[in-house]
Structures are given as structure tokens and as C-alpha cells.
From TrEMBL:
Domain FAD dependent oxidoreductase: 6-354
Required cofactor names: FAD
Binding site for FAD: 196
Signal peptide: none
Designated name of the protein: FAD dependent oxidoreductase domain-containing protein
Keywords: FAD, Flavoprotein, Oxidoreductase
Similarity comment: Belongs to the DAMOX/DASOX family.
Positions contributing to D-dopa binding: 311, 344
Length: 364
């Protein structure tokens, strides 16, 4: 029985996770087509800011609101599968750790939904808040950190190992994805899965003007003693996300609509100051009690890189739906499954969305 051809456009965390889900089923012959793919850059080169996934922290921390049960389900599915990978596939770059969240306010004065869903989640006493003046609630819970460069390479390698194909190719129109196949060998038209994130804003045939960048500036520092992932939400948006290899991502910003790709030195200074407030273990024990200026300078000397990336937000939420097209060359109809617009929660919801795409395609 021949496998149905599928092309996944986009090789970020969503596209690669979807491709793995489909290819591993044994029902589909999957090709990934993307302008940027993991491991394709020459030594010393930096990824394009047009490609969001390499710039992420990343960790599992719920982004869904207490009323968004759809996204909650996607995040919980991913939480379970990240646990399986952490326990069985160390080469994936996923590790268990403790997550700590500090809130400056609570929506509708309600506790975050995952406080009741995650085993061993515990409220943090107020006397342990790093800054009690702007924190009203704290939560610690078991979670995962993801070494992004390692994980993206793992997803690509696993996909290829399953028999999938990767084509590094820039598409100007969604219809061009069909050109990856020889029409004489096809028993049916390929299914196209659009995972182009911010690229969907300009991709011909899609041109989704609801897509909007959310600028994020982060630092990568050397800080091997920092093990927890810490997030502060409220009037400040700060986070400390270890990668599990001695490096830590510090952030950050969330500037909706900004395409500014140059780092702001003042933002770098603020990130350093707030990160030290959240996690003293960013510096050796010998630095405890030293003047703030000395501690700031010590952490600044440990900066590996200052980064700017753009989260792919879609106004109204991610797009997950099918759309019918007709190939202008062959006049044959084909189906596109759209899965993009995950803003800053791509990693922590990726496996849930991949399962949903699989269900949609299985029903076609």
C-alpha cells in the first residue's frame, strides 16, 4: 500500500514536530521544505531573525489562560511527551527541572490553572519572593528545560532517520510546495501542511495579515550553577531559562509589532539586573553580598551572546484549519492544513498541535 505524500512547509519546532508525527505513523511519505533548517549554516554564522525557533529559551511554562481550554489541552499533551523524551532520549536535549513562577497580578483573582493540574505543584511563601513589592503569588512545579539548538537538530535527525526528506528551499507561494513531487509518480495529490509562522504573512496564497511579530531581546550567559527556570509576569516580564549545558537564557521583552532587529543596550542592562534579582545562582557563591555594580559587571562578563528574535503571534490565536486550493498547473485540487501563529508558546504546545494535525489529516 503506497503512502500518501505530505509536504510540511517550515522547519521550526512546529513544522519538525508535525513532520515527525506524520512520518512515524507509517502512513505518510513526508517532505519538509524550508528556507532555514537546523544545521544548515556554515560555522560561525547566525540564524536569520525570520526564523523564530532557534531564538527561544525554551521551557515548559503554560501560556494558556484559565479560560483557554483548547490551548491548555495542547500544553498538557506536550508536557507528558516532553517527560517521555527527558526519560528515554537524553540526546534530545530535554531535562527535568523545577519551574518557578512569580505573578504581579492574577487574572480574575484566580490561581493559574496548572497549579491544580501538575503533580507536586506548590505555592511559594511570600517571604521567599525575590521582590515582595511587586509579587502577590508564587508557584513552583516540576517542568522541563529544552536546549533549543540540540532539540531542533534532534527533531531533524529523527525525522530523516524515519525516512523523511528535507529540502532547503524558499517558497514564494504555497502552491510551489507541489513542485517537490514528480506528478507522474503520484497516485494522489500531496497534502500540504503550512507551518511557516511569520512567513505566513507574506507567503503567496496565504498572506495572513493577522500575523504580527512580538520582538524579544535575550541574553545567553554562562552560569552552570543556575538550574531552575524562573519567570516573573506582571508589570515586569523577566525569565531565567537554563539550557542544561551550563548556559542560561535571560530575558526579556515582548514588544508587539516591532521589527527592530538591533539589540538595545539599556534593555541588556535591565535584563541583567532583573535576572540577578530572580536567580542569585547566576553568579558563584563568592559573589553573594558584593555590591550590585560588581555583580552586574561579573554577569556581564559571562555574556555569550545578545539576541533579538520575533515570536510569530497571530491576532485571534493560532490558525489550525484546512483550506482547499486548486493547482494552477495541473488544475487538480489539493488541501492545505494550516498550523501557525503560536507566538511564544510553540515549544510547550508543539506536540499537542502535531497530534491535532495528524488527526485532521487522518480524516481527509
Amino acid at each position: 500500500m503506497s503512502k500518501r505524500p505530505v509536504v510540511v512547509v517550515g522547519a521550526g519546532v512546529i513544522g519538525l514536530t508535525v513532520a515527525n508525527q506524520l512520518q512515524s505513523s507509517g502512513k505518510y511519505s513526508v517532505t519538509v521544505a524550508a528556507e532555514q533548517v537546523p544545521g544548515s549554516l556554515p560555522a560561525g554564522a547566525r540564524e536569520s531573525t525570520r526564523w523564530a525557533s532557534p531564538w527561544a529559551g525554551a521551557n515548559w511554562r503554560a501560556w494558556s489562560s484559565n479560560s483557554d481550554h483548547v490551548l491548555q489541552d495542547m500544553e498538557l499533551q506536550t508536557y507528558e511527551k516532553l517527560g517521555e523524551l527527558a526519560d528515554t532520549s537524553p540526546e534530545a536535549g530535554i531535562q527535568r527541572t523545577q519551574g518557578v513562577d512569580y505573578f504581579g497580578k492574577l487574572a480574575d483573582n484566580a490561581l493559574p490553572w496548572y497549579a491544580a493540574k501538575l503533580d507536586n505543584a506548590k505555592e511559594i511563601p511570600a517571604e521567599q519572593f525575590p521582590n515582595p513589592t511587586d509579587t502577590i503569588y508564587g508557584l513552583c512545579y516540576p517542568t522541563f528545560i529544552i536546549n533549543v539548538p540540540v532539540y531542533l537538530e534532534y527533531l531533524k535527525s529523527r525525522f530523516i532517520g524515519l525516512g523523511g526528506l528535507v529540502e532547503q528551499k524558499s517558497l514564494s507561494h504555497i502552491e510551489e510546495s507541489l513542485l517537490l513531487f514528480n506528478p507522474d509518480t503520484l497516485s494522489s495529490m500531496p497534502i500540504v501542511v503550512n507551518c511557516t509562522a511569520l512567513g505566513s504573512r507574506v507567503l503567496g496564497g496565504v498572506c495572513d495579515k493577522q500575523m504580527c511579530p512580538v520582538r524579544g531581546q535575550t541574553l545567553v550567559v554562562s552560569a552552570p550553577e543556575a538550574k531552575r527556570t524562573i519567570t516573573r509576569v506582571g508589570s515586569k516580564f523577566d525569565y531565567v531559562i537554563p539550557r542544561g549545558d551550563g548556559t542560561v537564557v535571560l530575558g526579556g521583552t515582548a514588544e508587539v509589532g516591532s521589527w527592530e532587529d538591533a539589540a538595545d543596550p539599556n534593555t541588556t542592562q535591565r535584563i541583567l539586573r532583573h535576572a540577578l534579582e530572580l536567580e542569585p545562582k547566576l553568579l558563584p557563591q563568592s559573589m553573594v553580598g558584593r555590591p550590585e555594580s560588581e555583580r552586574m559587571q561579573a554577569l556581564r562578563e559571562n555574556i555569550i551572546s545578545v539576541n533579538v528574535g520575533f515570536r510569530p503571534m497571530r491576532k485571534g490565536g493560532p490558525r489550525l484549519e484546512t483550506e482547499s486550493f486548486v493547482d494552477t498547473k495541473s488544475s487538480q485540487p489539493f488541501t492545505v492544513v494550516h498550523c501557525y501563529g503560536h507566538a511564544g508558546f510553540g515549544y510547550q504546545s508543539s506536540m499537542g498541535y502535531a497530534s491535532k494535525v495528524y488527526q485532521i489529516i487522518s480524516a481527509l
